[in-house]
Write a structure and sequence with these properties.
The protein is mainly α. The chain is 73% helix and 0% strand.
Amino acid sequence: MTNDGRRLRGMRSREAILQQAVGLASVEGLDGLSLGRLAAATGVSKSGFFAHWRDKEQLQLDAVEWAARQWTEQVVEPALRAPAGVRRLLALHEARLTFYGDGVLPGGCFFFAVQAEFDDRPGVVRDRIARAMREWQGFIRRLVAAAVTMGELAEDVDAAQLAYEIDALGEMVILHSRLLDGAEALVRARRAVLQRLRALCPDPALLPED
C-alpha cells in the first residue's frame, strides 16, 4: 500500500473513532470514554488508538473539535442557506431542532453533556469547550445584529439578550426530550422563538405564522 493509501485509511479510522467518541460522550460525558469501549465500537485495536492519540486528554480535545465541526455542518451551514436577516435566525433555530429531533447523537447534544461535566474543572479541555460555546453564542448574536441592521428586527433589540434567549430555548429541548415529551418540546421551542421574532419584527409577514 502506498503512503497516500495508508494515510487515507488512517484518516478514516480516526474519523470513525471520533464519531463514536462524540456519540458516547453525548450520553456519558468525555470522562466516560474508554479505549476498550471505543475499540469495541469501532473495531480498532487498542494499540491502533496510540497511532492517533498519545493520551486521553488529546482524545477529548479532538472529540470537541469533531463535535464542533459536526455542529457547523449540520446546524450552521444549513441555516446560512436561508435569506439573511430574521429568516436566517429562525432557520438556525430550526436546524438545531432538526438536529435534536433526528437523533443525530444518542444523548441529544454533545456540548450540553460536556459543559456540565467540565464547568468546574480548569484545564485545556474546559477551555476548548468554553471557546466552542462562545463561538456559537457569538454567531447567534451576529445574526441578530445583522437582522437589526437590515431593519428586520426593531432597532432597540439587545442582540446579546435575544441570542441568549434563543440559545436557552434550544437547550431546554434537551432537558425535556430526555425526561418529558420530546416531540412537544420541539414544537414549543420552535413556537417560542418564532413568536418572539415575530413580535420584534417590523414586518412579521417575513416569518411563518406558526
